TrEMBL record:
Any one of the GO BP annotations: cysteine metabolic process
Full protein name: Cysteine desulfurase
SUPFAM superfamilies recorded: PLP-dependent transferases (SSF53383)
Similarity comment: family membership: Belongs to the class-V pyridoxal-phosphate-dependent aminotransferase family. Csd subfamily.
Enzyme class: transferase
UniProt keywords, alphabetically: Lyase, Pyridoxal phosphate, Transferase
Amino acid sequence: MTLIPPVTRLDALSDVEIRGIRADFPILSTEVNGASLVYLDSGATSQKPVQVLDAERSFYERDNAAVHRGAHTLAALATESFEDARSTVARFVGVREDEIVWTSNATEGINLIAYAMSNASLGRGDEASASLRLGEGDEIVVTEMEHHANLIPWQELAARTGATLRYIPVHDDGSLVLDDLDEIVNERTRVLAFTHVSNVLGIVNPVDVLVARARQVGALTVLDACQSAPHLALDLVALDVDFAVFSGHKMLGPTGVGVLYGRGALLAALPPFLTGGSMITTVTMEKAEYLEAPQRFEAGTQRVSQTVALAAAVRYLSAVGMDRIAEHEARLGERLVAGLAEIPGVRVLGQPAGTHRVGLASFDVAGVHSHDVGQFLDDRGIAVRVGHHCAQPLHRRLGVTASTRASAYLYTTENEVDEFLAGVADVTTFFGVSA
Ligand code: PLP
């Protein structure tokens, strides 16, 4: 059974619905450089609807207090909102609320796992603790398309523990080379960490194939869901991963809040990453006893307003429907890729045929630096990402140092995609690019 979302044709969001959605996002009706904003940088961070802005504001106006401490009414209200937000996010990805840990962002979530694993000798003596302990002879596997956030923490863990870091390479078309999967993910593999959707290519990786192989050899799986949680219906239990991370700011929520999912038994065995207030039961001058997960991983005063606003974001996405958002974006993604491919001198980075995709594509314009492409488009109010998108190894593999990335979301219209494509065509004319 494949768990890759099927390329089905659901009802797309209608023009009327998209107009209604856009009216919820004040920033989308602003002007940039004298032109209406065309925001195609949602892969970096999404825009926020009034429902999310209001939730954060209203928390500060009515309920603001530190959570889990203090006997006063506001502290109880704040704690209730904080824990309700945890339940809302847990339901959104199909897991239990005590399996959700709040972090600052996805980067912190991956670092939390990787650092806590290098402290695993401090953990309990049970089987789950043993699965978290790494040493010489063990292997950690990532892919060649990882964002640096899902690469460097594993490089560091390997360096701290003496384990070896290996990777699954990518084909020229950007898909993973799975022919040697059984050799790369083998009996020595302890962790397989990979992205669900590439932030450069926009393609959805075969989670089912990767997880099945990891299970065969008893390796832990860590899913970087940064580019999937905002764009696809995500069921972490069905995907059967051990850990997953994503960032609130990419899914209509505020910055400063991220989500770490960990399978209950593993979170129970994982030692803390940050220590201090709010994560202990008793402390003496010599030692401390820690709370159970998730509180054991939430040291210090917590980010309450952000979690409340993220819950509002999740409610917004759920009301529109994740399947319909995915369908809308798949169509925009196809339009982006097809349109870019028609422009002479433009090379879309790695686009395997027939792969499910989100509304994101990166491209190179022959002989023109991506910063110049970005600047040209910005003069017309079109916001895109330029550079290596925190994926230097993937760019190197595809033979470029940088690219320009356009990324859509539920509020993006076909007209905006067409305006962007016309802008790219004009870039090639302006810089005298030939095929
Ligand atoms: N992983 C992927 C695939 C991403 O796209 C990003 C952000 O661009 C990250 C990880 C890191 O997310 P954050 O910077 O919010 O921690």
